[in-house]
Amino acid sequence: MNLKKFPTLFLIWILLYCLDTSKVFSVTESTGRLPGFSVSSYFNEQVITFNFNPEMRIHINAPEADSFDINKPVGIALFALPNGNTIEHTVGKILQPGDDWHFDIQHIGAQTRFLRRKIIEYNLVTVYLETKQLSWPLWKSKYNNYAGIVKTTIEYLKSFFKDYQPFIILTGHSGGGRFIFSFLDAFSEIPDYVDRICFLDSNYGYENVYGDQMINWLNASPDHSLCVLAYNDSVALYQGQAIVSATGGTWYRSRLMQRYFANFYPFETEEDDEFIRHSAIGGRIKILLKKNPEKLIFHTVQVERNGFIHSMLTGTPLENEEYQYYGERAYSNLVQAEELTKSNFQIPPRSPDARTGSQFMHDVNNMSFVDREEAILEELLTGNLPYFLRELKEFETTFTDANGNSHQVTYRVMPDYMAIGSDSDFCRIPMGPLTAQKAADFFGGCMPTRKLVDQIYLNSEIKLEPVTYAPVGNENEQVSKFIEHNAAIESQRLAVGGELGQLTGGTKKDVVLSNKIADPSRPGHVVIYGWHQLNGEPIQPLTNIHINTYVDYSHGIRFLDAEIAVDGTVKTIQDVLRDDVLYRLLSDENGAMSQPTYILDEEIPDKPSSFGILNEQGGGLKILITPDAKVDFYNLYLSGDGLNFDLPVQFTGNEFILTNQPCDSIIYFKLKAENTAGVSMESEVLAGIARADTVLPILIVNGFDRTSTGNTFNFIRQHASAITHNNMSFESATNDAVINGLIELKNYLVRRSSAFMGWKK
Length: 761
Description:
The structure is a single chain. Helices cover 22% and strands 25% of the residues. It is of the alpha+beta class. The chain folds into three domains: 35-334, Alpha/Beta hydrolase fold, catalytic domain (Rossmann fold); 350-585, no CATH class; 611-760, Immunoglobulin-like, CATH 2.60.40.
C-alpha cells in the first residue's frame, strides 16, 4: 500500500482515537481496579513493581479492588527502605529454614494489612522505595540534584490517585530517613499534602533547620502529625564496640529534636523503666524513646514489634487498639507465605498527568534528532506508553541449538511497536537504537533478532499490509510522516476489526540484535530487518547500512522480556546469544553474538583479541596475551579439532604454559576473559603444535576478524592442517598481537603467502 497523500492528517488521527477509547488511567468505575497493576496471590492486593528515576526501584501495594473505596481519599505511605534491605525483605514472609533473616525483621506487608483492617477513613496505599545502593544516604551522595529527583518521584506517585484527594505519609526505617530529609530539602515549606511524618529509628540526619520546617508544617494544619521512634543506641555495643558515636545515633538526634520543639510546644512526658514518652499538641507529636540498660541493639526490633503500625496511628483513636508498640506481633496471621514475586520486565505506570500521544508529537515536531531522542527517552522512562503494550504475549516453541539438540524456549513479547501516549491517544514512535537500548535496559527488555522477528510475525493475530511512502527528500524522516504512518496503521487495524493488545505484524521494520552491530567496517550503525508483506516475505533484508542516528517512519521498536526459559531454566536473551551453542535457539546468523546490545557494558572485559601461541623448548606451548587491566582471569578452552572444546581451564596473568601435549598433534584453543562484572565473548580460534625437534615454524597470522556471514573464526583449521600435512611446524597469532608488538615479525623470515605465513629465522 503506497499512500502518497493523507489529507486532513491531524483531524483523521484524532477521529481514529475517538473511535477506540478502551483504557484510561483511573480506578475502574465501581470496582476499584487499578489499571497496570497485577493481583497478588496474597490477599488479592493490587501490586506493581518498576524502576524509576536514577537507580530507584519502587513497589506499590494497594488494597484489593473490592476493598478500594472510590468515594474515600487515598493515603500514600512512602516507606523508604533501611540500609541493606530489598523491597522483598521489607515486605517480609514466613521465615523458613535457610531463608535470609532480613525477611523476618520488618514485615511492612503484614503491618500494612493490619492497618487496612483498622483504618476506615481512607484507602491505604503503601509504596516501598529502594535504591540500587540499598542505601538512601549513599544514593543521595551520588546525585547533586537529589532533592529535585525525590520531589519529582513523590509528585509522580501522587498523580496516580489525583481524583481521590491523595495525601502523603513520609516514613521509613534506618537510612530511609535520608529520603525524608531529601524531600524536605526540596522545599522551604513542607507541602500541605504531607499529612504525617514518621521516623522509625531513622532521623540520623536531623538538624534544627528541619525542625523549623516541621514546626511550621505542624502549625499549618490540625491534620499534620509527627511520630518519632528511637532507642538508646548511644550505649549499644556490637562485639564490645559502640555502633554509633555519642552524637551520631537516633537517641541523640531524637532528644535534640524534642528539646528544640519544646521551645514552641508544651510537652507531656511519661517515663518508666522501659520508655520515655513525649507528647505534644494533643498527641500530634509523639516521640517515644526506648531505654537500653543492657546495651543491646534494638534497631530493627522497634519496627518488627508493631513499629510501623504505631507510627501510623499515634494521636488517633486507633492508637494501641488491638496492638501494643513493642509488644508481641499483632500481625502474625497476615504474613505472606512466600517471597514477593520479582518480575524482570517492569515498566513504570503511566501518570494521568502525562502528555497524550498527539500532544507529545506536536511538541517534538520541530526538534532536532538529539533533542527528540532525549524527549522520547524521558517519556518512556516515566511510563508514558499505552497499557495495551504492557500485556506481553507468551509463546513456547521448540528451537534447535548449534549442535542440533532441541530445546523448549518460552519467551514473551510486546503485542505491538513502541508508542507514546495513552490507550486512547497514542502514536507509534520510531527512535534510534541507542535510545531504544537505554529504554530496554531500564525496563528489563531487549530487542528481537531476525529469527525472532520472523517468529513474531508468524504468530501474529493481526497481519497488516505494509504502508510505504516513496522517498521525497527527507520527508520520511520527519515527525509529520511518523504521525501519518501511525494514522494509516490505525485505519487498517480498525478496518479489519483488530483490537489493541492483539499481536500485530507487518507494520514496521524492526531494529534488531545482530552480529552486524559489532561490524568493524560499520561502527555506530543500526541493524534493521522485517516489515513482512502478506505473503510472509520481508521487505527489508537484514542490513546495517544506516548510521545509528538515521530514523524514518518505517522503523519500529518492539521489546521482549529479556528473560526467557530454556527447558524451564531462566536465562537472559543476551546470555543465550553469547553462548557458542545456544545462540542458534534465537539467531539464524552464523556464530554467537559478540555484542547483543547497542550499548556495551564497560565493566565487562572486552573479547580477547591480542594473543598468540609459541613453541617452548621440550615440546611445550606458551600462550601470550596482551595485558588488560579489566581482566581478573581467563578461561582457556582446548580442542583437538577446532570445533569441539573441553571445559575451560582458568588461569591468571598474561602467560600460560601447556605441557604434556601429544607430540605432533595440533592443539586448538580459544579464550574468554572474566571479572566480577561478567564474562567476555569468546575469542577467535588459534592453534599450535608441540614438537620436540627443531623444525623452523611458520607463523600463521589470523587477520579475518570481520563480523560477517560465513566467518566462523576458526579458519586456522585449514592452514594448520595443511602445514602439518607437509611435516612443517607452526606458531599462530592474531593480527592485533602483531600490530601491538606482542608477536614480532622480525623474528620470522617472511615470504609472500595468501595465508600470511612466514619462516622463523
